[in-house]
Amino acid sequence: MTVERKGERKRSHRVSFFALLLRNRLAIFGLMVLSIIVVLCLLAPLLPVTDPDKTDLAIRLQKPFTENHWLGTDHLGRDIWSRILWGTRVSLVVGISASLFAAIIGSLIGILAGYFGGRADNLMMRGIDMLMAFPYILLALAIVAVLGPGLMNALYAIAIVNIPFFARNVRGIAVTLKRREFIDAAQLSGKNNLQILFTEVLPNVLPVIVITLSTTIGWMILETAGLSFLGLGAQPPQADLGSMLGEGRKLIITAPHVSTIPGIMIFLIVMSINLLGDGIRDTLDPRLKAGALLRPASRTQTELPDQESIAGNDQGILNVNSLKTEFHTGSRIFKAVNSVDFQLYTGECLGVVGESGSGKSVTALSLLGLVASPPGKIVSGSVVFEDSDLLRISDRQLRTLRGGRISYIFQDPLVTLHPLYSVGEQLAEAILCHRFMSHHSAWKEAINLLDMVRIPNAPVRAKNYPFQLSGGMRQRVSIAMALANDPDILIADEPTTALDVTVQAEVLRLLRELIRGKDMSLIFITHDFGVIGQLCDRVVVMYAGKVVEQGSVVDVLTAPHHPYTRKLIECVPQLGNPDKKLVEIPGLPPAMDNLPDGCAFAPRCDLVQDQCRGDEIVLETLESGRKVRCRRVMEVVAR
Ligand code: ADP
Ligand code: MG
Question: Which of 240, 115, 97, 222 is nearest to 167 (CA)?
Answer without folding.
Answer: 115
